[in-house]
Specification:
Layout lengths: L1 H11 L2 H7 L2 H14 L2 E10 L4 E13 L3 E3 L5 H6 L3 H18 L6 E5 L2 H6 L2 H12 L6 E6 H6 L2 H13 L2 E7 L5 H6 L5 E4 L1 H4 L8 H14 L3 E4 L5 H9 L4 E3 L7 E2 L4 E2 L5 E2 L13
Parallel strand pairs: 2-4, 4-5, 5-6, 6-7, 7-8, 8-9
Antiparallel strand pairs: 1-2, 1-9, 1-10, 2-3, 11-12
The chain binds ligand C2E and magnesium ion (3 copies).
The site of ligand C2E has 25 residues, from β2, α5 and β6.
């Protein structure tokens, strides 16, 4: 019940309210400084193999250690970064960090998935950024995945399409994020070289509703398999959701049940590759959800 009311509060809160109040320009200036001075840090949320519950990948999620406002989540600054043309340097920082994470944890054999926004694909040479991050860190391209929303895929310009193709040719995975919530879900799969998709948390919240929620989950898991893609179900918070996700045929999952977004220093990796993150409620991340 506490979770429900928390969610209701989040839904009622509009990020634009605070953004307008504090003057976008000052946030822009601060964000510029933040990128330069290393105030942006990357947290890592586990992706697990549902059958074994072993951590097989991480999603990189950016946070801002703001000097006076504390730890800020991406919803407070990604939009501003996009408008202020700061998303390219911000995104480049995250891609470099993700590659550095992989190269400094040789016992970790999984992938790191990095979120990229359309503007990164459209306005800058994402392929060049990715290639230089891989080269600098000596990381194999197959260890990196890029998450793009289906709307982002749709909006990607013609030039951006060739960027996506070049990235795939390089051996980097493209993954559709928040699948099912954007426009033209299926054409994003048809028109792009996609290797995986992540079912949006909106659907996970409806697991247990036999008339629609469960049927959509089953249909999406089946679609994923039919297309030879890998599927990740997002936002698993309860054992009941976990059990249903497995029953519906999902292979991989992500959510607070398995681990919050975690600062790198709290992650340990055994020599056999087993990954440990702190468990327990909101162990490490922001107090979201
Ligand atoms: P996303 O890529 O869909 O990431 C999932 C979001 O859901 C994350 O929020 C994560 O903390 C949260 N989450 C994960 N599991 C659960 C769960 O079980 N329950 C609930 N309630 N939430 C869960 P976060 O970190 O606040 O990120 C929000 C969005 O910001 C991301 O959504 C992504 O679109 C964007 N983002 C994050 N990092 C970056 C980045 O480096 N670059 C860009 N362009 N966007 C980013
Ligand atoms: Mg994502
Ligand atoms: Mg997502
Ligand atoms: Mg999202």
């Amino acid at each position: 019940a506490a979770k429900e009311s928390g969610r209701a509060r989040l839904a009622a809160y509009h990020p634009g309210m605070r953004r307008d109040a504090m003057s976008k320009l000052s946030v822009e200036a601060e964000l510029r400084t933040a990128i330069r001075d290393g105030q942006l840090v990357v947290f890592y949320q586990p992706v697990v193999d549902l059958a074994s519950r072993r951590i097989i990948a991480f999603e990189a999620l950016v946070r801002w250690h703001h000097p006076s406002r504390g730890l800020l989540g991406p919803d407070e600054f990604i939009g501003i970064a996009e408008e202020a043309n700061l998303i390219v340097p911000l995104g480049s920082h995250v891609i470099h960090e993700a590659c550095r994470f992989i190269s400094t944890h040789p016992d970790f054999s999984g992938r790191v998935l990095v979120n990229v926004s359309t503007k990164q694909i459209g306005s800058a040479d994402l392929t060049r950024v990715v290639r230089s991050a891989l080269t600098e860190s000596g990381v194999n391209p197959s260890r990196l995945g890029l998450e793009i929303t289906e709307t982002g895929m749709l909006m990607a310009s013609h030039a951006a399409k060739s960027d996506l193709e070049a990235l795939t040719a390089l051996g980097v995975d493209l993954v559709i994020d928040d699948f099912g919530t954007g426009y033209s879900a299926l054409s994003s799969v048809l028109l792009n070289p996609v290797s995986g998709l992540k079912l949006a948390r909106e659907f996970t919240l409806r697991l247990g509703d036999r008339s629609t929620g469960d049927r959509i989950s089953i249909a999406m898991a089946t679609l994923t398999m039919s297309l030879d893609m890998y599927g990740v179900i997002e936002g698993i918070e309860t054992e009941a959701q976990y059990a249903l996700a497995r029953r519906h045929g999902w292979t991989y999952g992500q959510g607070f049940l398995f681990g919050h977004p975690t600062p790198e220093e709290l992650i340990t990796i055994d020599t056999d590759g087993t990954v440990h993150v702190p468990t327990g409620d909101r162990g490490a991340g922001l107090a979201v959800g």
